[in-house]
Amino acid sequence: MASGETGDRVTAAVLIIGDEILSGRTQDTNLRDISRYLGTFGVDLAEARVVPDVIEEIVAALNALRERYDYVITTGGIGPTHDDITADAIAAAFGVELYEHPDILALMTARWGGELNAARRRMARVPVGGDLVKNPVQGPPGFTIGNVFVLAGVPQIMRGMLEDVGPRLRTGAVTISRTVRVEGSTEGVIAAPLEGVARAHPAMSLGSYPFFGPDGYGSNLVLRGRDPEEVAATVAELMAVLKDAGCTNVKEVEPGA
């Protein structure tokens, strides 16, 4: 199916690469940004993994994910240092060699001038058969091969690269999200009504997210689905059964509220 067409469910996974994420030294924000961005194209982020800077670990995770999902987006490990081994791992996973892409070499030469040192030349390596992903922020581009997009780990640069990923995706039906807020009732009270509605609407996702604070307690019930009419009907149904169960403070809240 060509890019831009809408079909059945389209799925993606994110592979976050880097010891600094696993150690807690760096807090990842890319997963959130990728999920939100993919959602605008009707692509469901179905799984995320974090792996260390170990080629064998990256290859194993990548091969598992790219077989299971329509797309895989990796972040991190494409810089100039010795531990930036993502390109090596991607090439190994696809069974191809790396080569120095002439367009990347030209871009870096134009920016830095003179002879490129070995560290900078590392960032020009692309697997044979791969295409470039534009980098509108700074530094060399990312690349794509098969159903895998390889992006930078620096959040600002990663978000810029994403803009070149979206138009290449096979899109799906955009998921609609609605939230019902229940105040002053515990999850033990709302569990049965919520389960009943969830069973009656298997095509939808219903989740309960409790909150506690000085202003009170309760749960935000998030309903997600692709059929606008079913989503609207399910919201009304859920609010009705919650009130029948004795919940007195039930209301739908605006997104982001």
From TrEMBL:
It comes from the Bacteria. InterPro entries: CinA (IPR050101), FLAD1_M (IPR056596), MoaB/Mog-like_dom_sf (IPR036425), MoaB/Mog_dom (IPR001453). Residues 13-172 form the MoaB/Mog domain. Pfam families: FLAD1_M (PF24102), MoCF_biosynth (PF00994). SMART domains: MoCF_biosynth. This is Competence/damage-inducible protein A. The lineage of its organism: Bacteria, Pseudomonadati, Pseudomonadota, Alphaproteobacteria, Caulobacterales.
